[in-house]
Amino acid sequence: MIINSIQLNLYLTLGLIFFCLGIYGVLTKRNLIGVLMSIEIIFNAANLNLIAFSRFIKANFDGQLFSLFVIAIVAAETVVALAIIIAVYKKKDTLDTGKLNLLKW
Amino acid sequence: MAYVWLIPLIPVLAFIVLTLSGRKLSRVSAYLAIACTAIATALSYTAFFSVLGGGSYHQAFKWFSIGSFKVAVGVSVDSLSALMLIIVATISLLVQVYSISYMKGEDRFAWYYAVVSLFTAAMLGLVLADNFILFYSCWELMGFCSYLLIGYWYEKPEASSAAKKAFIVTRIGDIGLLVGIIILYITTRSFNFNTVFSTHIGGGIATASAILLFFGAMGKSAQFPLHVWLPYAMEGPTPASALIHAATMVAAGVYLVARAYPVFQASPTALNVVAIIGAISALGAALMAVVQNDIKRILAYCTISQLGYMMIGLGVGSLTAGIFHLMTHAFFKALLFLGSGCVIHACHTNDIFEMGGLSRKMKITSWTFIIASLSVAGFPGLAGFFSKDEIITTAFKSGNYIIFAVALITAFLTAFYMFRLCFVAFFGEPKTKAEKAHEAPLSMTVPLIVLVIPSIAAGWAAFSFGNFVYFKHPHTAEINVLVMLASVTMGLLGIVLAWGIYYRNWISDKDISKKMGPIHTLLENKFYIDSVYSFLSHKVMIDGICAGFAWMDMKVINRGIDGIAQLINWSGKELKLTESGGLDTYALITFGCLALIIFYLLFLIL
Fold first, then answer.
1. Would the pTM of this model clear 0.80, i.e. be above it?
2. Residue A81 belongs to a domain with what CATH number?
3. Cross-strand pairs, B70
4. Is A32 part of any domain?
5. Range(s) of the domain holding residue A37
6. What is the DSSP code (8-state) at residue B62?
7. Which of B576, B579, B591 is the closest to A27 by Cβ?
8. Residue A105: inside a domain, yes or no?
9. Alpha carbon of A94: minimum distance to chain B alpha carbons (Å)
10. Based on the structure, what is the number of domains in chain A?
11. What is the per-residue pLDDT across B281-311, written as a single tens digit (0 to 9) for each?
């Protein structure tokens, strides 16, 4: 069990690093595509957590199954997001988040 | 007797038909209304004769229920309501016949008949009601109809303000009535007259509810201090005044006291209040009538005074005396008003000093009017003599000598002002407006002649009346020779004094009013009661209390609401700066807050 918990902690730490990198990317990237990619990293950090917990704590396939669902839904969501990005680009000729402030008062 | 419930509904039918198609019917509308009232009158008389020998009739059906609270609506005929039925129906019928000529050529001719029909229906429903709910509905309906009739010529500002005055003043009394009914309901858990009046009600509650009910009666029957509307009600058409003064509106208050007599009987205080208010009204109104020059105003104050007599009769403990006077008064007062209508029709003025000498030109009107005046004045043998004597005798027997004295003085004043009116208007030389006067058409004089009969003869019912309408024990008319002599002397004295001043001109009335300066001014200003009311309503209510509320509204409430609105406006202006529209800012705030929440949760766990 001790070995297991060490291994689990390694996976969780990796997930945490991914998550923080993703957040950093979302906050700092000026390009919408970059933001989208950073969000993907956050998703993968979460998936990693799910799989790690599933492997070391519960010992069944619930978590893994769930992460598969997440991957499928993220794929669909990415399609929508990319479509929006294309539409924005056609309209505004830019993907710079600093310039896309339509909702400003 | 199963047809009794139809009596008020037939005039309602006339009202509906006339309101919907009155304009097309024009003169036919009068005949329709008269036909409906005639049927109601016939039914009233059959109902009257079937309870004449004693007994009563009651009929009820469920009206509505709210949960366990059930209201049955019903009609009941006993001797009191049967008597009222025939008085109301007869007088309404005669007034409507009379109105054919009087109202000829008016716009809204059909509307007049519609409202009179509804008015009659409301009063018939009121006397037939067996419960407070129906009673109160009819009571209010009558108030509304009187508003319509008084304001019939609403193009005249006086008429419309008189209508409002009548409505508002009676409404003030109605609040008392409503509260009284509610107290009685809370005490007895019923609206039904039989149940309410057969329940024993304790002293304090009996006093409170009786006085509150009497408050309603004060409004409707124009008793001091709510009498102010009645003289102004003269702005309506004269036949409508006759209806209001003789049979419907003002009789309702007296009827209420008579109907609720068990409650009044349970509280000597309440009875004393009734008697005292009656005495004040009787004497005060008689005094005010002495200085009036308007023929209808004199009659109006006379009505208040006579209603005061009825209240004295009820207040000193004799239901029979009060109702007997109600009956005789209904006949001779209707006659007086219809007669005054003929006079006004002929002279086109209300001022008696512009008339004069009418007895030669309008024989029927004048002599019927004089007979009615004799009846009011209590001339021996006429109707008013018996009923007034009954009240005075009862007041004497009850030991209320002050009230007895007031009644006697009022008898003197009544005779005086009625014959002041008669001598000035009907005798002497014709004045400006009386020269072209002529007798009224037949449809106006026939009702006068019909009404003369009960004005003379109704009094002779005095000897058996006490066996018909009474409270608990049959009332036997007692003849107290001394009291009778006193009241007859007072009456004759009044007539002789009026004859001396206004016919023989022993002394000029101008001199008297000069010598009586302050008193004359006081009476001409109606004891300043109207001034007190207008002071209360204008200075105290509008300039005082309402101004305070207006200030409160402007300065506190308006300012407060405005302040809140300004605060929200300002905060919106400031907070909009956070809406930068920048995606990264939003994300930073979102994640920052998320991080804060996580730290907080960690802090809680550790």
1. no
2. 1.10.287.3510
3. B65
4. yes
5. 2-92
6. E
7. B591
8. no
9. 14
10. 1
11. 888 888 888 888 888 888 888 888 888 888 8
